[in-house]
Structure formats: structure tokens, C-alpha cells
Amino acid sequence: MTNTAEYLTRMRRVRRGANPLVRRTDRLESRVFTLFVAVLLLLVPLSIWASVVTWGNQTALAEQQQAERATVTATLDTDPALDAAGWGDMTYATAMTAPATWKWQGIERHGVVQADDSAVAGDEVQVWVDRAGEQSLPPMSDGAARFAGVLAGVSLFVFAGVFATGAFVFARWRIDRARTDRWSREIEAFLGSTSSH
Q1: How far apart, in whole angstroms, are the C-alpha atoms of residue 123 and residue 135?
Q2: What is the C-alpha end-to-end distance of the chain, expressed in Å?
Q3: Residue 122 backbone zone (phi > 0: left; psi -120 to 50: alpha; other: beta)
Q4: What are phi and psi of 2, to 5 degrees?
Q5: Would you call 163 exposed, middle or buried from its count of C-beta atoms within 10 A (0-12, 13-18, 19+)?
Q6: pLDDT digits (tens, 9 = 90+) for 110-152
Q7: Which of 14-28, 58-72, 108-122 has the highest mean pLDDT?
Q8: Distance in angstroms (rounded) separating the CA atoms of residues 185 and 197
């Protein structure tokens, strides 16, 4: 087998009928190959279904978050400072943050918000809050929901396709090994029978 075209030609010949030269291992390999192709074809609608379902779920979540969250104007209490994070002796800068105050339904709230490096105490920034007025992450965007749906479908196809390909390659290896072992036994039996005369 030098290329895919020759392999496919061989598989077609094996499936044509009861050829006495076709070995049992050839028929088994043909069935394994047919199953492999069927799995790959089945993965296409399954991946599309997973993409559509995930897209719908993420879109619903994005709409819910957009309905439950709002922006308020917060006032910086101090000048922003550069946050640092790291492990042991290694540190790296993350973002400029500062404590801030905002009002939600007449109640004063406090939190740490991100700010530009040019901001100073007293500047106003927009902050996302939930229904209780507590600071929250921005809601998911429609674009992020679409991306999650497409990513789910592509991931399913790729990972399942890789698994199916690995299973097919392993099955072919086992079949080839069984074919080689049987061939070796038959040669040994033939040589043994001719040397005995």
C-alpha cells in the first residue's frame, strides 16, 4: 500500500464478492474501514447538532445576563495602582485598579475596579453590576455565544475524529500483525513439509 487511492481500490475489490483469493483478514479490514467511514460521516450531523444546541444555550445565557446586569457610574476613591501577581520571586503586572464607590437604588456600594493609568481619584468609570447592585463581570456578548457554539461543534468533530482515526489505525495494525503471523506460520509449515522429503 503506497497511497490512499490504492488502499481504497483494494477495499472496493474486497467488498465485490466471494473471491477465493480474499483472506478473512481482508474482509475484516474492509468492514473496519467501512465502519470508520460511517463514523466520520455520522460525526458531521452530530457536530452540527452540538453546535446548534450550544449556540442556543449560550445565546439564552447571554440574553439572561444582559437583562440582569447593568452599568453604573462609579467614582474612584484613590489613584489607580498597578496590581502585581506571581509565584515566589517572580512577579508580573496585571492591571491598573483602584477602590471605587457607586450608588445603587440609593445605597452606597464599594468595590475595586479597573481604570486607565491616566485616571486619578475622583474620576468616573463605568462598572457592571448585578440586580443587587454588586459588582459583576460584563454580560456575555452575542458574538461570544456564536463562537462557543461553533467551537463546540468543531471540537466534537476533531476530538471524535481523532479518536476514530486512532481506533482505525490500531485495528489495521492488529489485522496486519495477524496476517503477517499467519503468513509466517504457513511459510514455516510449507518449508517444513518440503524439507522432510
Answers
A1: 18
A2: 37
A3: left
A4: -100, -25
A5: exposed
A6: 988 888 878 888 889 999 999 888 989 899 999 999 999 999 9
A7: 58-72
A8: 19
